Each structure stands twice: as C-alpha cells, then as structure tokens.
Amino acid sequence: MEDNNDHLVRSTDCEHPANLIPELCRKFWNLGASNCEYYRELPLTISSDLVYLAPSGVQKELMQPENIYVLEMSKQVDPKKRIYLRSPPNLKPSQCTPLFMAAYQKRNAGCCIHTHSQWAVLITLLLERRSENKKVFEINNIEQIKAFGRGWKKEGSMGYHDTLRIPVIENTPFEEDLTVYLESAMDAFPDTYAVLVRRHGLYVWGDTVSKAKQHAESLDYLFRLAVEMEKLQLPWLSDIAPIV
C-alpha cells in the first residue's frame, strides 16, 4: 500500500470522483466568474463505501486530484473525529463536511453541492421580510419544477402544477453548527432535495452527480425567476386549473 493511500485519487477514468470533482469545480467556477451570478463547489461524491471530499483552503478553479480527501463510511464512529483513508498534506477538511455527510446518511445521496448563489440568498431575504411562511420557499405552475423527483424513495417526477417546497434554516457563525438544523429540515421536509440557509446559500443533493448538478442548476433558475417575479409583483404560488 502506498503512503497516504494516494492510489485512491489516481485514475485515468474521467468519471472517477478524484478527477470528476476538480473538473466540475473548474466548470462551475468559470460559469460563476463569467456570469458573476454564483459560486459553487462540489465537495462530496460517493463511490461504494468511499467518500471523496474537496478540502478547505484550495481555490476551486485550481483544485487537483491530489487535493482530495477520502474516507470510508463504514469506519466512521464519532462524527467529530472523522477517520480519513487519505488526507492531502498541508490542507484541512471543509467545515461543511458534516452537512455533506448528512445528505448521504439521511438520503443516500451520491453527490452533495454547496452553493453561495446570490439568487438563493436573495430568496431567503425576500422570505425574511414576510409576516408568515418565512421558513419555506414555495413555487408552482412553472415548467422547471419537472426537474425534481417526487421525493426520496418515491417514483416519478414532479409535474407542472405541483408545488416545489424548499425549507429555510437560519445561518450560524460556524458552518459545521448548521448540521443539526439541516437534519431537522430534512426530517420536516422528507421530499426535499435541498435546504436554503438564510443570508448564506444552498445545500442541494441528488442520487448521482448528474442529478445533483441538475437540481442545483434548476434551483438557481427558479430562484432567479422568483426574484424577477417579485419585482413584477407576480405571486410564486398561483391557482391554474389543469387543461383537460
């Protein structure tokens, strides 16, 4: 066995998590930089019992496979003392790690994405000034809602007339302290694929990398649309009868 298990992050397969994470981080960073809209990181992917995590302190557009952490889910006992199969030298795990792990443990997610989308933040601010329903974003009768499944362990996708609900939790000074609130939101909204963090951003996940990416992009579209609808005093929820 090699020192530090470096073989776990070496592969010629472009779909290998150690190659996929840096590549997607670069693509997301370039998209955010060119559009000045959002910043994303792809910190977690699952490969069998192995979890691949991006580190803290590395510029996302410069990330390399050797920067990736690897841990074995079945060997974890204390969430505050994670045991890593591989740790890159001179780096440290992200404070977001326990939140990413919650998505895997509670939803068996194959990938979890954290975004600091300005549209996500604006949605939480718009909800904050409301007198009621401050803790959930709701929207219906929008085509893009079809991008989401009906919920964990449920068959089929949401429909045009369905209402998409994304819970909102309050921000904390330290990211890892959000974990208990994220888990509570997942329990209260078992069908959600994402949780908004007020004045901070979004955690979003999916069964696969492709699904997580699809959910992240679809939510960013819906959040931006909702902000524009608010400007025009258009309601996010509407009563439209299905065409028979």
From TrEMBL:
Zn(2+) binds at residues 114, 116, 200. It is found in: Cytoplasm. The lineage of its organism: Eukaryota, Fungi, Dikarya, Ascomycota, Pezizomycotina. Its cofactor is Zn(2+). Catalyzes the dehydration of methylthioribulose-1-phosphate (MTRu-1-P) into 2,3-diketo-5-methylthiopentyl-1-phosphate (DK-MTP-1-P). Substrate binds at residue 96. Keywords: Amino-acid biosynthesis, Cytoplasm, Lyase, Metal-binding, Methionine biosynthesis, Zinc. InterPro entries: Aldolase_II/adducin_N (IPR001303), Aldolase_II/adducin_N_sf (IPR036409), MethylthioRu-1-P_deHdtase_MtnB (IPR017714), Salvage_MtnB_euk (IPR027514). GO terms for molecular function: methylthioribulose 1-phosphate dehydratase activity; zinc ion binding. Pathway: Amino-acid biosynthesis; L-methionine biosynthesis via salvage pathway; L-methionine from S-methyl-5-thio-alpha-D-ribose 1-phosphate: step 2/6. It catalyses: 5-(methylsulfanyl)-D-ribulose 1-phosphate = 5-methylsulfanyl-2,3-dioxopentyl phosphate + H2O. SMART domains: Aldolase_II. This is Methylthioribulose-1-phosphate dehydratase. Belongs to the aldolase class II family. MtnB subfamily. Binds 1 zinc ion per subunit. GO terms for biological process: L-methionine salvage from methylthioadenosine. Its EC number is 4.2.1.109. Pfam families: Aldolase_II. Residues 19-227 form the Class II aldolase/adducin N-terminal domain. The active site is at 143 (proton donor/acceptor). One of its GO terms (cellular component) is cytoplasm.
